[in-house]
Design brief:
Elements (H helix, E strand, L loop, with lengths): L8 E5 L2 H11 L3 E5 L5 E5 L5 E6 L9 E7 L2 H10 L29 E5 L5 E6 L4
Length: about 130
């Protein structure tokens, strides 16, 4: 029934202006604001993909990754985002460890991944495609 439908994800933020600035300037993405629909943001990524960010005054960030960005070179991407002031999460548990550059190296367990948060506390990640 839905196999041929186009889909998109969405999540909330507590400050739409701050989110717009972060996604445009720090992440370098194309962002459109729709004032007629309550100032929702449409964030465009590769191809015709996009996701929606909407303002929510009582926003509570999820405790899981809400969006993943596939990248060709995770080290280059992480370093570039850090240069723009994006702090990355560091993990050191029996289930998840990140290295000195805040990257979980996949190896046999899957792709390499690094996590960061937007200004509203939403967890995002960059995932290195094609390597494991």
């Amino acid at each position: 029934m839905l196999k041929d439908s186009r889909a998109f994800g969405s999540f909330s933020v507590n400050d739409i202006d701050q989110a717009e600035t972060f996604y445009k300037e720090a992440l370098g993405l194309e962002v459109e604001r729709n004032e007629k629909m309550g100032n929702i943001l449409t964030v465009h990524t590769g191809g015709d993909a996009h996701f929606i960010i909407y303002p929510k005054p009582n926003h509570t960030p999820a405790e899981f990754t809400v969006h993943n960005f596939m990248v060709k070179d995770i080290d280059e991407t992480v370093n570039g985002l850090k240069e723009k002031g994006v702090p990355f999460e560091s993990y050191n548990s029996e289930y998840l460890k990140t290295d000195e550059n805040d990257i979980s190296r996949g190896g046999e367990r899957g792709p390499s991944i690094a996590w960061f948060k937007d200004p509203a506390g939403n967890i995002l990640s960059v995932v290195e495609e094609g390597k494991s």
